Amino acid sequence: MNTSSQVFETLSALLERNNILTSAAEVQGIICGMLGGGMPLESQDWLEPLADVINQGESLPKDVITAFKSLFDSTCQQLIEGDFALVLCLPDDAAPINERGHALLNWVHGFLLGFGLHQADLTGCSEDVKEGLEDFSEIARMDEEMSEDEESEQALFEVMEYVRVTVMLCFNELGKSAEQQQGEPKTVH
């Protein structure tokens, strides 16, 4: 079983080798945003919008596609397990705090991008989801350096936990599996 930091390192190296100017954190953020925004888990049309966003519409190399599919599958699995099983694809806890903080900002930015691709109408969302998305917008804009101390570590940990819980909340409220979509009556407005 790969740890999320191993997945992060492996995927980051792969992206770099292929000159794809994004981070592993942002890729998982985009995937979670799409799923949290209501894209069906069984959807197969997430790869093209992802390529559009991160690779200027150029098709992705096969090894990158394989790695993305693996990340997509494991992320879907974590989201449906519930119990807040989602593990963010971020650098190892031993990495410098600013590197981890920056990766978290990329993750949140990716989430907002992916979410926006699938959910433009927030009128039906709960206040918790709306508030979470507003908070994500704030988090994505943070850019001040953090000091390497216990207080900053605790703050970063709390923000990471908040992000995880908010993503699960969005997914639980808006995310759908194929069974759910077929089980819902079609409403006519």
Report what the structure shows.
- There is one protein chain.
- With 189 residues, the protein is an all-alpha fold.
- 65% of the residues lie in helices and 0% in strands.
- It has helices at 4-17, 24-36, 47-54, 62-81, 97-118, 127-141, 150-174, 178-183.
- Helix 5 (97-118) packs parallel to helix 7.
- It is globular and about 45 Å long.
In short:
This protein has 189 residues and is mainly α. It is 65% helix and 0% strand.
Overall average pLDDT: 87
What class, by secondary structure content?
Answer: mainly alpha
Shape: globular
Number of helices: 8
Q: What is the radius of gyration computed over CA atoms, rounded to a whole number of angstroms?
A: 16 Å
In terms of DSSP E residues, the strand content is under 5%
User: Count the strands?
Assistant: 0
Helix content: 55-70%
User: What's the order of the H and E elements?
Assistant: HHHHHHHH
State the end-to-end CA separation: 47 Å
Q: Residue ranges: pLDDT <50 for 5 or more in a row?
A: 181-189
How is the biggest beta sheet arranged?
none
Strand and helix map with partners:
Layout: H1 4-17, H2 24-36, H3 47-54, H4 62-81, H5 97-118, H6 127-141, H7 150-174, H8 178-183
Helix pairs in contact: 1-4, 2-4, 2-5, 2-7, 5-6, 5-7, 6-7
What brief labels describe this structure?
65% helix; 189 residues; mainly alpha; globular; single chain
